[in-house]
Structures are given as structure tokens and as C-alpha cells.
Amino acid sequence: MEIMNSLIRLSAFSFLLLSLSGCIPIIFAGGSETAVVATQERSTGNAVDDATILVKIKSLYADEAKQDDHDLLFNVDVKVVEGRVLLTGNVDKPESQVDAVRLAWQVDGVKEVMNEIQFTDKSGISNYARDVWISAQVKSKLLFAKNLRSVNYSVITTNQVVYIMGVAQDQDELDRATYLASTTKYVEKVVSYVELKDDPRRFPAAKDFPK
Questions:
Q1: How do residues 107-146 score in pLDDT, each as one tens digit?
Q2: How far, in Å, CA of 111 to CA of 91, rounded?
Q3: Which among 42, 108, 135, 168 could disulfide-bond with 46, CB atoms 3.0 to 4.6 Å apart, if both were Cys?
Q4: pLDDT at 206 over 80
Q5: CB burial of residue 39 (10 Å; 0-12, 13-18, 19+)
Q6: Count H helices, E strands: the chain?
């Protein structure tokens, strides 16, 4: 099962890498992705930048795995929203956490790195399956919730802890999203890294624009 999961993740990573290198076009128009990008608070440009950051971080993890005996590529999950990087997953050595954060900061465009990587022996097929089930349930709740733009949220679960990233329309929407996640079966805790739509930190200062 672990080998299969690794192969699936590697295939997805390879596809994204090929897309950004020009071998496979990224479809932001003329398909289902159009609706996603059009309704997200992120612009198409931001989405492409985030995808580029993701690929570069994963590439650094792959290089590190060749040189050391830990495998950051498969053990650490990476989410990127507007240059903010969330790291989650299970590692078997404390230094792996340090390396994961250090490498993420090396990528151009990274504004913030949130380290939620866990050093724990909670692993195995049953734990992984439960986390996948929880994420699916939370995403489903957000999708069917009224007056909530689920497309703006990313959900990942590690050891029954749900992490949410994205952009909320307002505090009320964020509170509802957090509540829906927290009331999902098996969820032990919800950690939110969601920013509000009008948060000034989302917008570059005037001094950052070229003259």
C-alpha cells in the first residue's frame, strides 16, 4: 500500500513538473480548470506562481532524498497559496523537519513557511486511510455548504488533524468552514491558515511595485 501511495504521488508530481516545463500544457482555459481559477480569489498568475513554487520545493526534496536516507519527497505534503507554504506529514527523524523548512525557504517567491510536520510513529495503512477519508468528508461539507466558496480552500489531514489553507470572503465564512471541519467524524483538531479576502497582507505594498 505504501509503495502504491508513493507511486501515485510521484506520478502526480511528474505530471506537474512536465506541465510547468512546457511538455504538457496547463489548462487554465477551455476546461473545468477555467471555472476553478475564475472563481478563486487567486488570480491565474498567482496560481501558476504557486504551482511553480510547489514543483521547485518538491524538486529540492527529491535531490535531498538522493543525498540522505530520509525521503522528504514522499513523507512531506506541500500546499502553496499566494506564496505561503504549508508543510505537513510524518517524518521519522527530527532533522527532517529542519531540512524541509530550510529547503522550502530557498525557493524564490516563498513569503511564509508554516511548519506542521509531525515527528511521530503514527503511520500505517489504517491511519493514512482515515486521514484521506477525513479530508474527503471535509471537502464535501465545504462544497455543499451554502454561501461558502469551497474552491478557495485547501484541506489536508495528518494524524486526524485537519489543516485548512486559502482565502475566506469574511470572518463568518471562515468560522463556518472551521466549524464544519471540526464536527467531522474522527477529527481531533482543526488548524486554520486561512486569510481573509481583504487582509492587507495579501496585497503588495506600493513600494514593491516597479516604477
A1: 999 999 999 998 876 667 788 899 999 999 999 999 999 9
A2: 24
A3: 42
A4: no
A5: exposed
A6: 7, 6
